[in-house]
Amino acid sequence: MKVYISADIEGITGVTHWDETEVGKPGYEASRTQMAAEVRAACEGAAKAGAREILVKDAHDTGRNLTAADLPPGTQLLRGWSGHPLAMVEELDQSCAGVVLVGYHAPAGSAGSPLAHTLSPLHLLEINGQPASEFLLAAYSAAYVGVPLLFVSGDEATCAEAQRLNARIGAFPVKRGVGGGTISVDVEQALAGIRDGVAAALKGDPGLCRVALPERFTVAVTYRDHPKAYRASFYPGATLASSCTVAFASSDFLDVLRFLLFVT
Ligand SMILES: [Zn+2]
What we know:
Blueprint: E1 2-7, H1 28-48, E2 53-58, E3 75-78, E4 96-104, E5 124-127, E6 130-131, H2 134-145, E7 149-155, H3 156-165, E8 170-178, E9 181-184, H4 187-203, E10 217-222, H5 226-232, E11 239-242, E12 245-250, H6 253-263
Parallel strand pairs: 1-2, 1-4, 2-3, 4-7, 7-8
Antiparallel strand pairs: 5-6, 5-10, 8-9, 10-12, 11-12
Helix pairs in contact: 1-4
The structure holds zinc ion (ZN).
């Protein structure tokens, strides 16, 4: 059995400020170390439930936060970005029994986290009229590939979003946002919650953890400044909906991912 794990940093235990997510800035090393510990816990949970193969995607910023030395023996690590539209879940395919998301966070424009954002340079991303999170993009990507979404850890808002999509998806909230701050569980609780949650999800019926794809996607990307929106409006099929917003629609989710790859 092969398991796919995608890890971000903004939804990792304790991580609160942008400085703590950026290489070279104060607090980054502590965030990176905790990210590695949470991914290791997810690997241990998967192995405990019988996974013989694990592919970990480092999905934060440069994609080079985790190192091979961080992970248990036998784990494969995908660092950097291939440029494939699946992005945060690139190389996910039907050989995987399920997807696990670690360190995921609330979307741009929401109150769920002081680090709420969607695809960094964007001001706002909406799909079918609702703010869309990186979690939602990963969930729809898994659905598109045809692989169940087993488990997510991150902020409370993301775990609640997962449960709204499909209550069978395992979720362990490690923190919640309070304005510019966060309140986190202790590290041992976080690691145990992730380890046990991943194991339980895999031992359950992964087939019940599927996410339904909408039949049609209406996408709106709102930038801070008009020039970026103007430029993005030349993507085939895109239109300038207002001075800072570009709209795009398709019934094929891969078209949406391809659009986002080129306009963000
Ligand atoms: Zn992110």
